[in-house]
Design a protein that fits this description.
single chain; 80 residues; mainly alpha; two-stranded antiparallel sheet; 5% strand
Length: 80
């Protein structure tokens, strides 16, 4: 599995980044279990989403994390 780093996304068209890819990089860089809301906030800040856009994208992002086999739900809305 290729390890993702947030710095690899620098210079990319931030608005074209998939939230799920950024979330993978965030979790890998943090190296710890994170609450979904913290992941969402980190991703939203990185790709510069305003609150309205973040709330609009949140349901699909949550679905993507649940479906993607690289994320593990550890209960109580924590992910690794």
């Amino acid at each position: 599995m290729k390890r993702l780093k947030l710095k690899q996304f620098k210079g990319d068209h931030i608005d074209e980044l998939a939230m799920i890819d950024v979330a993978k990089a965030v979790l890998e860089e943090k190296g710890e279990v994170m609450d979904f809301n913290d992941i969402l906030l980190e991703v939203s800040n990185f790709i510069e989403l305003n609150e309205e856009e973040m709330n609009k994208r949140m349901p699909q992002f949550y679905t993507d994390i649940n479906v993607d086999g690289e994320f593990i739900s550890l209960g109580e809305n924590s992910w690794g």
